[in-house]
Amino acid sequence: MSRRYYMNTSVQEPPLDYSFRSIHVIPDLVSEEPRTGLRPVKHSKSGKSLTQSLWLNNNVLSDLKDFSQVVSQLLEHPENLAWLDLSFNDLTSIDPVLMTFFNLSVLYLHGNSIHRLGEVNKLAVLPCLRSLTLHGNPIEEEKGYSPSFPHRQYVLCNLPRVTTFDFSGVTKADRTTAEVWKRMNIKLKKGQNKKDIL
Predict the structure, then answer these.
(1) How far is the C-alpha of 83 from the C-alpha of 62, rounded, in Å?
(2) Residue 151: its pLDDT value, please?
(3) Which carries the bigger pLDDT value, residue 187 or residue 105?
(4) Taking phi first (over 0 means left), then psi (-120 to 50 degrees means alpha), and beta for anything else, what does residue 112 get?
(5) Is the pLDDT confidence value at 189 over 80?
(6) pTM, 2 dp
(7) Are 15 and 55 in contact (CB under 8 A)?
(8) What is the average pLDDT score of the chain?
């Protein structure tokens, strides 16, 4: 299932690839030449790329300021952005701008500086998100970040449509465990609230 979906969302056009370009700020993309792959990226008459994939991995981005404006300059159909690779940068949070790209289905955020697991909650509004990576962030230093309790369950509870997390397929057992964890966590919170009231 996950492989079939992945093939559908990888789109026919090769990505607009700005990886390993030492990019510090998003506006630099406008003057930077993307990497050339085996197949050239097609462009519209206006000169904008027709791809739905944007790779910004292995740079030094600490924020996504001006992301929407720049993507609109680069892509003919920015609203169709489906695959965004932001891995191996210096991002400390999940920028709200990402939640405006409703067709995002693949989002790579591994190898950044994201500290709070709660940042994941923002992504729940993305209806097409199927593949997400978060490993290699400071949240891994918290006890328990692994395919087991509790971080994987936390992500799957909040993002039930995700079918691949940290390059590992989400199984029925994962879903069941996440659901059990969610119910236990809700009970725990209710218990804590009662104690607070008392």
Answers:
(1) 20
(2) 78
(3) 105
(4) beta
(5) no
(6) 0.85
(7) yes
(8) 86
Q: Which residue carries 């690779």 as its tokens?
A: 85
> What is the percentage of the chain residues whose pLDDT exceeds 90?
65
Q: How far apart are CA 108 and CA 159, in angstroms?
A: 15
DSSP for the chain?
Answer: -HHHHHHHHT-SSPPEE-TTS---SGGGGGTSPPBP-SSPPPB-TTS-B--SEEE--SS--S--TTHHHHHHHHBS-GGG--EEE--SS---S--GGGGG-TT--EEE-TTS----GGGGGGGGG-TT--EEE-TTSGGGGSTT-SSSTTHHHHHHHH-TT--EETTEEPPHHHHHHHHHHHHHHHHHHHHHHHHHH-
Question: What tokens were used for 21?
Answer: 């370009």
Place of tokens 């790579």: 108
pLDDT of residue 10: 41
Span 59-103, pLDDT tens digits: 999 999 999 999 999 999 999 999 999 999 999 999 999 999 999
Q: For residue 122, which phi and psi values (nearest 5 degrees)?
A: -60, -30
Sign of CA pseudo-dihedral 89, 90, 92, 98: negative
**Do the beta carbons of residue 65 and residue 26 sit within 8 Å?**
yes
d(CA 68, CA 85): 15
